[in-house]
Structures are given as C-alpha cells and as structure tokens.
Amino acid sequence: MGLAASSFSLNARAQDERQYTEGPVTLVQEIAIEYGHFEEYIDWLNSTWKPTMEATKKAGIIIDYKVFSSTPPSPDHPDVILWITYKNMAALDKGVEEEAVAKKVIGSTEFQNKKRVERSEYRKVLRREYIRELILK
Questions:
Q1: pLDDT tens for residues 90-112?
Q2: Are 48 and 101 in contact (CB under 8 A)?
C-alpha cells in the first residue's frame, strides 16, 4: 500500500513540474507605412534603427533584432514587423542603459522626439507586444 501511495505522489509531482522553461522575450512592433514611403522608412531603419540595435546588442542589452516585411491584406495590417529580443524579462529593466546607447548613436532625446514626429507622418505603430519563447522539455 505504501509503495502505491508513493508512486501516486511521484506522478502528481511530475505533473506539477512545468514542461517548459521560459526563454528570451521579444518586443514585436507592427508598423503600417503610408503608400509611397516604404523606401524612406527602410532608409531610416538602415541609417538609424540598425546602428542603434547593433550598439544595443554590443552593450549586452539585447540579444538580437530582426525586420520582416508583410503583405497586408488590408490597411489595418502591418507592412513591416520589427523584433527586438531580450535575454529575459529582467533585461527590460535596462531602460536607462538603452536610452544612453540611443543618445550616443542618434542624439539627444529632444532630437529623437523630433524625428519620431516626422516619421509619424508616414508610419503608424499598429501594435506593440512582448512575447516570450517557451522552450519545451
């Protein structure tokens, strides 16, 4: 009887254990670009966003970044999807360090804000979402 009870408790414990580990966290940004401005936005990604991501990666704040194009079925869907991947949720607490890297690469916060306003004339952030990879056991 004792052996049967202990095997039940082992099964219950095994079922209580997660069948995955939590992996990296990715910020997903979906961007709609006004007609005729796609190349302008890509130029900005190459001239400003990419160097900022490279510097942020070199500083150990992020582990990767990616740019995807999309074929939107309607105007409320993205043309471009940006991914910025962090090692874990704790890495998201490095906002001060991230801002320092951006200031070094791009310029002052005031300058960055001015440029954001200019970009908002032809691009719209449709969605920002953090997703976490689950690594199955």
A1: 999 999 999 999 999 998 889 98
A2: no
The predicted pLDDT at position 8 comes to 55
Cβ–Cβ contacts within 10 Å for residue 17, how many? Answer: 8
pLDDT at 5 (0 to 100): 55
Domain ranges for the chain: 19-136
Q: State the CATH class of domain 19-136.
A: alpha beta
Q: Residue holding tokens 């690594």? A: 135
Are the C-beta atoms of 36 and 123 separated by less than 8 Å? Answer: no
Cβ-based burial of 62 (10 A; exposed 0-12, middle 13-18, buried ≥19):
buried
Strand 123-136 relative to strand 80-86: parallel, antiparallel, unpaired?
unpaired
Q: Is the dihedral angle over the CA atoms 22, 81, 43, 92 positive or is it negative?
A: negative
What are 3-56's pLDDT values in tens digits?
Answer: 555 555 555 556 689 999 999 999 999 999 999 999 999 999 999 999 999 999
Q: Which residues contact 100 (CB under 8 A, 6 or more apart)?
A: none
* Nearest-angstrom CA–CA distance, 23 and 134: 6
